[in-house]
Amino acid sequence: MCFHYENGELYAEGVALERIAQEVGTPFYCYSYSKLAANIAAYRRALEPFHSEVCYSVKANSNLAVVSAVAALGGGADVVSGGELFLALKAGISPDKIVFSGVGKTEQELEQALRCGIRQINVESAEELQLLARVAQRTGTRANVALRVNPDVDALTHVKITTGKKENKFGVPWPEAHELYHAAAQMPSLRVCGIAVHIGSQLLDLEPFRLAFTRIAAMVRALEADGLSIENIDLGGGLGINYNVELPPTCEAYAQVVRETLGELDKHIIVEPGRSVVGNAGVLVTQVLYTKQTEQKRFVIVDAGMNDLIRPAMYDAWHSILPVHRAGTAPVVADIVGPICESGDVFAKDRIIEPVQSGRLLAIMCAGAYGAAMASQYNFRPLPAEVMVRGNEYAVVRRRSSYEEMLEGQSVPSWTGDQQ
Question: What is the pLDDT of residues 55-112, one digit of tens each?
Fold first, then answer.
């Protein structure tokens, strides 16, 4: 196991988290290279019968070391900004393994993608398609285009991470997609090469995938009957992980749904996993600052805050929280909270946990996805350090910034002190 106890001490692979805390300070994120590699391998193995590409969703965790590990393991990238495209290339991912998604790409980002020669741009609206055609014509390139279609399928997940219903902002509405494909085919600076879909995140049920993929298969057949050639089917990501007591589908079960719905089409399959690649490969380690007992509550106040991990505040998300040193004492019920001046800065409410005192360490589990990637400097707090472990070694893959470094790029106008 990547995170496990040895003699009551929590380890990341072969390295004690206590040791890292002593040398790096807290809070810090710790990523297991071996777990990351195992998760990538599970997708590649399950999809081996297909012509396929595993394009890691960079938005889940954009640390250069994480994306570089994906590249070394043979993965591609799904990016949603020019910055993520730059990062994927910097990490060593080949342009022909990169797809560019996102509902609001700028003209500059589209030009950047075209000049890099990436595999596919997933277009999400008629206006974006027209802009892409103009940019491609101006730059003397021909854009590889897929339409991200919205199949109006309920992913049965949290309302803030479902993306495939008709009221969501994502994708081309299903009734309009067929006509827009024909419009794209008439634009000489575009090359229609694929179709894309992504219905949401943290899916625990395969039936929404089955319904969406069945609809995609029908559209591919209809388009090809009209003479359009579809090479790539981009299925997006969304497979869930176990944060608490969930039983997410396996990669093999997911691949079976792909086989049953799309196998006869014999197309190049692209998947864009993010959370299910890096989520359970990372933890956030934080130190207990104080404990406080009121008439109604026991509070455990830690040095990590919602600026470091916003998922509980944003989504009411559950993360298991474990003591880094397990003493085996009788548990208590407590709220585990951060130092941010917001009532929403809570990691867990009424959580059953082993009593911990000031100076002890806690590990917030399954924090590898949408943790560091969504962190901020709110309350002028440095971003947490990030560490990667492999076997008995670890490396700091992003150091904690100093206050002076946090001020870089800021300036005071000369007239600030002018009283007139």
Answer: 999 999 999 999 999 999 999 999 999 999 999 999 999 999 999 999 999 999 999 9
Place of tokens 């003209």: 107
Residue 266 clears pLDDT 50, i.e. is over it: yes
The reply to whether 341 belongs to the active site is yes
In this structure, CATH architecture of domain 3-30+279-401: Beta Barrel (2.40)
pLDDT of residue 59: 97
Among 236, 199, 208, smallest CA distance to 56 is for: 236
> Amino acid letter at 310?
I
Contact 212, 164 (CB under 8 A): yes
The residue extents of the domains of the chain are 3-30+279-401, 102-271
Q: Are 67 and 77 in contact (CB under 8 A)?
A: yes
Check residue 391 and give left, alpha or beta (phi > 0: left; psi -120 to 50: alpha).
left
Q: How far apart are CA 285 and CA 21, in angstroms?
A: 8
Average pLDDT, the chain: 93
- Give backbone dihedrals phi and psi of 395, rounded to 5 degrees, phi first: -140, 140
Please name the residue ranges forming H helices in 25-164. 33-46, 64-72, 82-90, 107-116, 126-139
Confidence of residue 145 (pLDDT cuts 50, 70, 90): very high
For residue 163, is pLDDT > 50?
no
Name the active-site residue from 30, 55, 341, 366: 341
Angle between the N-to-C axes of helices 207-225 and 174-185, in degrees from 0 to 180, rounded to the nearest 10? 40
pTM over 0.85: yes
Same fold, 3-30+279-401 and 102-271: no
Chain center to CA of 235: 15
pLDDT at 357 over 80: yes
Alpha helices in 243-333 (DSSP H): 251-262, 275-278, 311-315
Can you name the residues that pair with 396 across neighbouring β-strands?
387
Alpha helices (H) in 186-273, listed in sequence order: 207-225, 251-262
The encoded tokens of residue 216 equal 């995609």
Contact between residue 60 and residue 277 where contact means Cβ atoms under 8 Å apart: yes
Domain 102-271: CATH class, spelled out: alpha beta
User: Which pLDDT score, from 0 to 100, does residue 165 have?
Assistant: 45
Residue 286 pLDDT: 98
